[in-house]
Amino acid sequence: MDKLTFMRAYCRIVERGSFAKAADDLQVSPALLSRDLKLLEDSLGCALIARTTRRMSLTEHGRVYYEEALRILADVERSEDAVRRAAGQICGRLSVNAPHSFGVTVLSARLPEFLERYPKVELTLSFDDRVIDMIEGGYDLTLRIRAALPDSGLIAREIATVRQALFASPAYLAQHGAPQTLQDLSLHPVVGYLHADDPMASTLKGTEEAIPQHARLQVGSSLVLRDLLISSHGIGALPDFLSNPAERDGRLVRVLPQHMLPSRHLYAVTASRRGTDAKTLAFINHLQTALASERDDS
Hints:
Blueprint: H1 3-16, H2 19-26, H3 30-44, E1 49-51, E2 56-58, H4 60-87, E3 92-98, H5 100-117, E4 121-127, H6 134-137, E5 141-146, E6 154-168, H7 170-176, E7 189-193, E8 214-219, H8 222-230, E9 236-239, H9 240-248, E10 253-255, E11 261-271, H10 278-297
Helix pairs in contact: 1-2, 1-4, 2-3
């Protein structure tokens, strides 16, 4: 294994915290990684990773080597990306993670054009509504819909605004009546989103009052939440990319239309060392342009 290849492998071992997981990612055997690490340590004259039967940890020299390897690999990536851009070549494996509901209803429709435009990009796409560890998962890019993101060593770029409002089905409102004030909401069951920043509390724009919630149901999928509202199980908040089609065809009606929930933002999150990767930037730019164009047309 050449030195740059092993630097990448070593970084993956450190980030995954396991020879077996790193070997699986790299599609090599754990024994091969272990052998190459031993050869490297022999050439350096020091141990990089302290291993026991149950865990592994970096030595002081191993931490220094990891940080230097990240810097060197980032420089190599920037150099290669600069050449690819100059030659018009965007290629390689791109691993993306996105929220399930957004991926199914929005992202999937924007993939064909991207894949046609960049035929040398190999795309791996997974959906998860939980906030995942992108380094642990080995992702180049994660898409997150949040009010704000916590400070971290990751790079977040806002690429769209996601508006939210309260909805119920016409049948539900015909049977139970439409709330006219915020206080009226306490008389209705609320269907909550389990992975929200705070699933039990929301504040409407234009008021400091929290929405009174009797959380009859909490679900971990916005798609299921939408379907429960359409099936007349209560009142709940939905993002615009799910509510717009259902509102247009009359399956859902906006509740308290004079109020909007605070907007969320769609963030493209990358690890700092991968932030300038050409294929990642191409994907982010493609998605941002497509969403902006559609919003302008609506």
